[in-house]
Amino acid sequence: MRQIAAVTLPMMEPLNDSEIERVLVVTAHPDDCDFGAAGTIALWSAKGIKVSYCICTNGDQGGEDLSVPREEMPKIRQREQREAGLAVGVTDITFLNYRDGWLVPTIELRKDIVRQIRITKPDRMLIQSPDRNWDRLFASHPDHMAAGEAAIQAVYPDSRNPFAFEDLLKNEGLQPWRVKEVWVMSNSNPDHFIDITSTFDKKMKALHSHVSQTAHNENLENMVREWGERNAQANNLPAGSVAEVFKIVNTN
Fold first, then answer.
1. 75/71 Cα distance (integer angstroms)
2. What kind and span of H or E run contains 148?
3. Is pLDDT above 70 for 90?
4. Assuming Cys at both sites, which of 64, 85, 137, 143 could form a disulfide with 90, CB separation 3.0 to 4.6 Å?
């Protein structure tokens, strides 16, 4: 039998932040971006990069308090996400209001994300992993994977193709847009890290803004710090450092 040698691909290097003017973050739920990347987002904002959020669901299945009416939860979670955004320098937030827990990568969801890409014109996008992470199952909520799959389909092939969702161009005047690169959160094989030691306090301020989701967890800061310290240790940062990790995909 003929033997086929394995090919090792080189590690993908991200574009320098100096080349990035705008970033679009697409996640399933309010608070996903803060658990996954708030420290990194705060660093981008501090550099003058315009960061926008696109939150796919209304978050109505979230929270621990059974006394809160479900119909109130979307309003609560949107308010909390706006407050969390302020902690890391983000004010441009769009909520698509799909039903929490029912998200699937439909054509309709792809179109809604394409619309946001063409409106915000990001050089870089930050999305959730469409692949299940067996080492971190909680990161692989079905909604997370659906949001990640729809987002990467929106990046390629849809947002750059003038013949995809032609009404966005003809009726809304939204020109095709080519995203240069995608950063993927919660991927089981990250290849890039960001030292967020200097912005860890902003990450925690953002997370604490999600009162309905985090107030019950007295160990929240220790838990998040431990995650970040493990990331830092795996990437040979000094003891006490905190890091967030991503997989980089060239999509230009």
1. 8
2. helix 142-153
3. yes
4. 85
Determine if the pTM surpasses 0.90: yes
25, two tokens: 């973050």
Residues 6+ apart with CB under 8 A from 196: 39, 40, 42, 43, 203, 228, 242, 243, 244
**First-to-last CA distance in the chain?**
38
Q: For the chain, what's the residue count?
A: 252
> In terms of C-beta density within 10 A (0-12 exposed, 13-18 middle, 19 or more buried), how is residue 132 classed?
middle
What residue type is 47 in one-letter code? K
Residue type, 103: L
Evaluated on CA atoms 118, 122, 123, 126, the torsion sign reads negative
Mean pLDDT of the region 26-34: 97
- pLDDT at residue 32 tops 50: yes
